[in-house]
Each structure stands twice: as C-alpha cells, then as structure tokens.
Amino acid sequence: MKLSIVTINYNSSENTIKLLESLKNQTDKNFEVIVVDNNSNDVDKLMSYETSESNIIYIKNDLNLGYSGGNNTGIRRALENGSDWVLLLNNDTIPENRLIERIKADLGGREGVVGLALDEGDKVAYAGQIQWLKPTLKHITNFRLAMSKMGYAIGGAMLIHKSVFDKIGFLDEKYFLYFEDADFTLRARKAGIPVSSLPEIKILHSVSASTKKLGSPMLLRYHYRNALYFNLKNGPWYIKLSVWPWSWLIVGKQIVKIILGKNREQSLAILKGMGDWYSGKMGKLHD
After folding, report:
1. Lower CB density within 10 Å: C or N end of the chain?
2. Backbone angles phi, psi at 267, to 5 degrees
3. For 247, phi and psi rounded to 5 degrees?
4. By the 8 A CB rule, do 131 and 223 touch?
C-alpha cells in the first residue's frame, strides 16, 4: 500500500516545519509527504528547512489556490506517483508516532473516504455535521454519530482512496476555502462510495491556525458565499428553493445592523459575500 500525505503551506512555515519534524518519528517510514506552498511570503523559510528525509516533495504554486486548489495540486502529484491512498492533513496538526502504521493496519480491504479524529484540546472532533441553511458547519464530538447520514469527513485529516477521484473528480475549487470537505463527502455518498471513519486514531490540531490570518471579515465573506453555493448545489429540493428567501433574510438583517451601527465591518463583509454569490464570483476573493 502506497500512502501520500498532502499538506498546504500558506504563510505558516513554522507550523509546516513542526509537522515535518513530527513525521520524522513515524514508526512506519514507507510514505511520502507532498508539501504544497500556496504562493506564501515565507516560502523561503520552508525551502531552507534542512532535512535528511528523502520522502518530502515540495510544490510551489505561483498563485494562492486555497484549500481546494492547493490540495488538488498535491493529490494529482500523489496519483502520478502511484499512491493508493492520499491523506489530506492540515499543517497545524501533530500526528502520533504510530499514525502511518495504524492507518495501514486499519485500511486493509477498505476503499472510499475515511475520516480521522482531530483532538482540539477541549474536545475531539470525529466528523463534521452537515446542516442546511447555516453559514458555518459544526463538528461532531460523539463518535457514534461521526459517519451518520449527516456526518462528513473533516478535510483537516481525510483519507481518500485513489478510486474515488476516478469516480467523482477532485475537490471543488469554486469554494477556495470552507465547505469543500462537506461537499466532497456528499458527492462521494451520492455516487455510492463508502464513507467511514477511524475514530480511535486522534490527531492533535491547533484550531483555525491555518486560516485565522485572513482576518475575520474576509472569513465571514467566504463562509456566507460558500454556504449559499453549498446549499443550492447539494441540498434536497426544498432546501434549494429555500436558499433564495434565506439569502434575502440575511441581506435584510445585515442592512438593519449597518443602519443601527452594530458590527458594521462584519455586516459589510457578509453583504459582499452575498453579492459574490449572486454575481457568480467564486474561487479566491479580493478586497
């Protein structure tokens, strides 16, 4: 079984280097790491990281392709290299020393999409929870509900068998950031691909370290735009019909907040996200 780990670096070389250092200690060293840099300002620091490990591949993107585009770049390289499984792993995670060994032991005979648990300190996230008409999606902390019909594999630690990409393609790059993992899981289920989890394997995760640098207003803009796109694309018929009045309700609420002078910056960002969706402006956003 050939396994590739794909991780993205975006102005967070310190985190990426910590991850690479932790991966040196794996008991099973038969795997490769593909580090995709999304046109970072600190890429030189990452490239100057000295390591004797020969299983690390660096890819420098000329543009910031976001979570979906960056991961797709790494996934394609992994498939070209003959990998059977691809592990999408956030660069702000620290895996246990036996991660690769335990993964290989548990993946025998499996295919499809497999979610791993993220230890976030005060709680363990076993999966994400699909909720309709919500600007953000919650995590599931009860492992028995992890891969229920409304559960999805969290993109920060998601295993994907090579056959999945042949059937449903890659991550949807229209999102750029947020909702791609939920979208990918739903597409897999609709195609009859098994979605499961390995709840006993937990990976330490520094929550939001990889995205907080974008700033709160920009994150709100991505969340609201992508939520509309996600619901219209994946929701049942009655949700698809409800997307429009839901969007009008959001717009009205933000206009009232602006008139009252309450959280004006955040409301403007949300309205921009709504406008992006209405105008079909997907992918990376600019001020």
Report:
1. C
2. -65, -40
3. -65, -40
4. no
Would you report the helix, strand and coil content of the chain in percent, each value rounded to 5? Answer: 45, 20, 35
SS3 string, 209-227, reads CCCHHHCHHHHHHHHHHHH
Enter the CATH code of domain 3-212. 3.90.550.60
CA–CA gap between residue 4 and residue 209 (Å, rounded): 23
Look up the pTM and report it.
Answer: 0.94
Q: What is the pLDDT of residue 139?
A: 93
User: What's the sign of the alpha-carbon dihedral 182, 188, 192, 198?
Assistant: negative
Structure tokens at 137: 């999606």
The number of C-alpha atoms within 13 Å of 70 and in the hemisphere containing its C-beta is 30
Task: Name residues whose C-beta falls within 8 Å of residue 13's C-beta, 6 or more positions apart in sequence.
Answer: 40, 42, 43, 45, 46, 49
pLDDT at 52: 64
pLDDT along the chain (287 residues), means of 10: 96 94 94 96 85 83 96 98 98 96 93 95 93 95 83 96 98 97 97 94 78 72 98 98 98 96 93 97 91
